[in-house]
């Protein structure tokens, strides 16, 4: 472990992937065959390992418990550990994007079953959780605290939450109860009032770190990689300049970014016809991989990227020993 004074002078950042499998996307889109579809995890995660390995980037992978029933998917997830610095975290059991409508027993089952499966299938003790659909009611925090979790990463403090929800509802073919539940997805304009940097949330007398998915400082528009590849499907030059601006603003406002990837960021239109409806999936595979490699290389060059667990440890260190670099400048 290096001493603080020899550490990189680049600002701290973290990188994660939500290991959402094809069934989760197809179910969210209201497709009836979602349960019987194939898995794209072996293909997509091999590319994740190749590109991140080449760039020496660490990764936090949020895993869905349902996928840990399949040997092939367990192997694919396990292969991420070739990265050397890879943290496995909890992304619920069934990836239902409406945890805010569940009763406490159901929430407990969604979190604890995945926790136990990560331990038994991959010998990984998760300390972080991200709710599907960026949903994190206080009942979730309560379960996380009772099970020794150190952080939640479900908040997405974007200004475009209502638009993202409208696009989701228009594309998906949900009916009845599912449609009603989905109406609360991504939070409302209220989600914008959340900080755009790690902060402490308190439940009763206990506290837990919240690491939001970083958005563009000031504008609060998304800057995660799926949004970047979606923008690039209209103009690569505009998308690249947007991401450079985002990184520059993160640095100038002292916002330590936490960015996220999804498996489709590593897939092109040749890879999966069923995913053609998903934003950014009309791009050819080679072009998509080149774009994502460019964006990740820029991220690695601009910031000192670590896993989210490592980010929490560093945050704990700096709260015991506050640094003026990140504590004083606030983006409002
Ligand atoms: Zn997800």
Can you give a write-up of this model?
This protein is of the alpha/beta class and 332 residues long. It has one domain: TIM Barrel, CATH 3.20.20. The protein contains 12 helices and 9 strands. The strands form 2 sheets. Strands 1, 2, 3, 8 and 9 form a 5-stranded parallel sheet that branches. Helix 4 packs across helix 5 and helix 9 packs parallel to helix 10. The longest helix has 19 residues. The chain is globular. It starts with 11 loop residues before the first strand and ends in a 5-residue tail after the last helix. 43% of the residues are buried. The N terminus and C terminus are likely disordered. It binds zinc ion. Zinc ion binds next to loops. The site of zinc ion has 5 residues, from loops.
Lay out the secondary structure.
Layout: E1 12-19, H1 22-28, H2 41-54, E2 59-63, H3 71-78, E3 86-90, H4 104-122, E4 128-129, H5 138-146, E5 151-152, H6 161-171, H7 176-182, E6 199-203, E7 206-210, H8 225-232, H9 236-252, E8 258-261, H10 285-302, E9 304-306, H11 308-320, H12 324-327
Parallel strand pairs: 1-2, 1-8, 1-9, 2-3, 4-5, 5-7
Antiparallel strand pairs: 6-7
The structure holds zinc ion.
């Amino acid at each position: 472990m290096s001493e603080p004074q020899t550490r990189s002078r680049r600002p701290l950042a973290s990188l994660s992937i939500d290991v959402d499998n094809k069934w989760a996307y197809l179910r969210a889109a209201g497709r009836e065959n979602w349960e019987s579809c194939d898995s794209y995890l072996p293909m997509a995660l091999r590319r994740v390992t190749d590109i991140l390995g080449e760039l020496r980037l660490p990764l936090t992978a949020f895993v869905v418990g349902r996928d840990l029933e399949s040997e092939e998917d367990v192997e694919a997830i396990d292969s991420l550990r070739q990265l050397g610095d890879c943290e496995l975290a909890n992304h619920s059991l069934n990836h239902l994007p409406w945890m805010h409508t569940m009763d406490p027993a159901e929430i407990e089952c969604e979190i604890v079953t995945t926790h136990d499966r990560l331990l038994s299938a991959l010998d990984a003790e998760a300390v972080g959780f991200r709710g599907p659909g960026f949903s994190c009611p206080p009942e979730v925090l309560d379960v996380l605290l009772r099970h020794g979790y150190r952080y939640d990463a479900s908040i997405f403090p974007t200004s475009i939450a209502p638009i993202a929800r409208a696009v989701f509802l228009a594309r998906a073919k949900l009916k009845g109860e599912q449609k009603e539940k989905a109406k609360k997805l991504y939070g409302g304009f209220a989600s914008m009032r959340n900080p755009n940097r790690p902060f402490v949330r308190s439940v009763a007398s206990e506290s837990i770190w919240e690491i939001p998915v970083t958005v563009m400082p000031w504008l609060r528009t998304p800057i995660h990689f799926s949004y970047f590849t979606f923008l690039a499907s209209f103009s690569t030059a505009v998308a690249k300049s947007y991401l450079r601006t985002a990184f520059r603003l993160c640095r100038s406002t002292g916002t330590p970014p936490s960015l996220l990837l999804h498996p489709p960021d590593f897939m092109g239109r040749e890879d999966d016809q069923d995913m053609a409806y998903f934003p950014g999936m009309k791009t050819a595979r080679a072009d998509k991989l080149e774009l994502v490699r460019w964006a990740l290389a820029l991220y690695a060059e601009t910031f000192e990227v670590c896993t989210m667990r490592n980010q929490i440890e560093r945050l704990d260190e700096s709260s015991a020993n506050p640094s003026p670099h990140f504590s004083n400048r606030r983006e409002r």
